[in-house]
UniProtKB/TrEMBL annotation:
It comes from Methanolapillus millepedarum. The lineage of its organism: Archaea, Methanobacteriati, Methanobacteriota, Stenosarchaea group, Methanomicrobia. Its EC number is 1.1.1.25. Shikimate binds at residues 18-20, 65, 91, 106, 242, 270. It catalyses: shikimate + NADP(+) = 3-dehydroshikimate + NADPH + H(+). The keyword Iron does not apply. This is Shikimate dehydrogenase (NADP(+)). Involved in the biosynthesis of the chorismate, which leads to the biosynthesis of aromatic amino acids. Catalyzes the reversible NADPH linked reduction of 3-dehydroshikimate (DHSA) to yield shikimate (SA). Keywords: Amino-acid biosynthesis, Aromatic amino acid biosynthesis, NADP, Oxidoreductase. Residues 10-93 form the Shikimate dehydrogenase substrate binding N-terminal domain. The keyword Transport does not apply.
């Protein structure tokens, strides 16, 4: 082994849950690359000095997770690529002779995850639930790809504001925003439904988006029967949460007859894209996926 392995890591707060070290270490090992990858707890107020210290310490690259993806672009020493600049968020940094470059691989990770399951997106009607950080990058990507996009959020104004921003920056006028009041008709019109909120994970593990509705779906006993009126066997329901592997939202959608997928492959593909940005090499997707699944299994 090289006595001076290349250094990589992920900054976040919290960070103990991160699966990135297991995933990237497996990818580096599989390609015989001498590298280390560690998780670092970095508070928001320490982000700037931590990035500069990583640069001084000879790091080659970093991933950024909550809550740093948007704030990192405020620093004038960061050079964002066109997409991360448009979105206003980055999850990958590359240190090089060109300085510190920023990239966003989250959205393309979501797209590649869908395509890996043969869920093709060209021309499809996309419904995105949530208007937070994860929603932004995914919504912008589908806006750029000229898909019809509807963004819905519990606070309608936030979704509407995001939709207008995407229209202005992408020229796609078929992007709209709204609240949950018309969620069922929105679901019926959508080909692909992407759930981007934290509902279904952590302290919200037993909560579904449908619990938020003031409608017939409020009654869990009637919920699946009611959902069958709006979801079809062709409907694709994608929850970007990967732990648990099946959220309450996905269980309900599956019971109503829809095709479902969780966020595991989005995690893998965004990581693979970051890996390629850093190294110029394509990692083995199956190796990264197996490392993620093994790490998840060890936490049960």
């Amino acid at each position: 082994m090289n006595s001076n392995p290349q250094k990589y890591g992920v900054f976040g707060d919290p960070i103990h849950h991160s699966l990135s070290p297991a995933m990237h270490k497996a990818a580096f090992s599989n390609l015989g690359l001498s590298a280390v990858y560690d998780a670092f707890l970095v508070k928001p107020e320490d982000l700037e000095k931590s990035i500069l210290k990583a640069k001084d310490d000879g790091f080659c690259g970093l991933n950024l997770t909550i809550p740093h993806k948007e704030s990192v672009l405020k620093f004038d020493f960061i050079s964002p690529d066109p997409f991360s600049k448009m979105v206003g968020a980055a999850n990958t940094l590359r240190f090089s002779s060109n300085g510190i470059e920023a990239f966003n691989t989250d959205a393309m990770g979501a797209l590649l995850a869908l395509e890996s399951e043969n869920f093709h997106t060209d021309g499809k009607n996309i419904l995105i639930i949530g208007a937070g950080g994860a929603s932004r990058s995914i919504s912008f990507l589908f806006g750029l790809r000229k898909n019809p996009v509807k963004i819905v959020n519990r606070t309608a104004e936030k979704a509407e504001k995001l939709a207008v921003e995407i229209q202005e920056k992408t020229g796609n006028l078929n992007v709209s925003g709204g609240g949950f009041s018309n969620l069922l008709p929105d679901i019926a019109r959508a080909d692909i439904i992407i759930q981007t909120t934290e509902l279904g994970m952590g302290k919200y593990e037993n909560v579904s988006v449908f619990d938020q509705l003031e409608s017939d779906l409020k009654n869990e006993n009637l919920r699946v029967a009611e959902l069958k009126k709006y979801l079809t066997p062709e409907s694709v329901v994608f929850d970007i949460v990967y732990n648990p592997a099946e959220t309450k939202f996905l269980r309900e959608a599956k019971a109503a007859g829809a095709q479902t997928m969780n966020g595991t492959m989005m995690l893998v593909y965004q990581g693979a894209l970051a890996f390629e940005i850093w190294t110029g090499k394509k990692p083995d997707i199956s190796v990264m996926k197996n490392a993620v699944l093994k790490a998840l299994d060890s936490r049960k």
